[in-house]
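Sequence in, structure out. Go.
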Amino acid sequence: MTRTRQIRLGAFIQATGHHIAAWRHPDAQADAGLNIGHYRDLARTAERGKFDLVFVADSPGSGAEEDRESAARDGKSAKFEPVTLWAALSQVTSHLGFVATASTTYEDPYSLARKFASLDWISGGRAAWNVVTTGFDVSANFGRDSHMEHGDRYARAEEFLEVVRALWDSHADDVFVRDRESGIYLDVDKLYPVDHRGAHFNVRGLLNIGRPPQGHPVIVQAGASESGRALAARTAEVIFTANLTIEDAQTFYADLKRRLLQFGREADQLLIMPGIFPVLGGTEKEADDNYEYLQSLIHPATAWNILQRRYEGVDLSGYSLDDIAPPLPVHTNGNQSRLKLVTDYLERERPTLRQLYRTMSTGRGHRVVVGTPEQVADGIQRWFERGAADGFNIMPPILPTGLSDFVDQVVPILQRRGLFRTEYEGATLRENLGLARPANGAVLAAVSEPRGNVA
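Output:
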């Protein structure tokens, strides 16, 4: 039976919350970055709200040594490695999916494939990999002389994904016999060693863990540049995106769905989930007051640091916060999708520098919704029903209350409207997202092209 289309919900978690000054809010868990109990409670709250998944963004390095003033005020500077964190939290949940970020530029295909296969087994089939190429230069953390160019990073990412998927398929699903009487533990005819030789990687051998319960952990991506869209259309199953207007979201949604056809994929094989930064209040005035209080927590030095990061290499000393924001400098080797998003915002709105930093301090280019629970639910429904989204990545301004308030106040409205589940559909993340379990590519190839026994 075909299911009625339902909204997908992810909880995008950032330690104390997404607002740049969230840690200063009295409701925030100031030590959140290193508090496993805090994350345990967040995971349970998300599962209580029937969320599909939780997600943490991650970078394989820190720029604190280069920007000491910004680092001194950064409440998100301490963070757990995401696969380790999710392995722990999978043990206090039973349905919630876990999306971990890992870089194709600074990691190795074999160790990453093993790590995510392990998470999928530990969680009972609830793992997902957020594939990033890392726009921020952390080359010094890895003993490299320079950061890879944008185009080279995406070429490496495409080959990286090919290798990882082959490694996940290096065992058939039924490879483990475990026959005590015969003494046969596994069927060697159902092993499919990888022998990959490419422009970026030479990988030969078997993954030393069984094929993941989901076949492959769910593949997630967040890039919206031309290279990012092309990679997503070929490989992604969920895409996290940032759109400020419904018109931009509709354009992005239609473009990605159309690109799928080029690769023999159906529209429902890729779920598009824009980020939303919701500020709730019992009335519109209360919501506005909550928003303004959050903004009041931004230290002036932090405001200028936000701007200076956007205007790298530009002298802002002659500007006041009430001056119209000048055009952004063009940097071809950073995050191209975020650069375009902010550039479009500057051209469309002509904001002052004060308005720009206030926008960047909240959703960092994601959509900010300030209002009552009904108004927030209305906005979610409108985007969902008008071809702008398959679901949403909820970005709580402060944690833990930003997530618990959304679960307690907005989710019931969506459920009453028949837009969101009241119970989980399955046990794995793929089942709950409505995504098919992928066939084993190595097995299919062996069927069409028989081979000799593996020694």
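Check: The chain is about 40% helix and 15% strand. The chain has one domain: 8-277+368-448.
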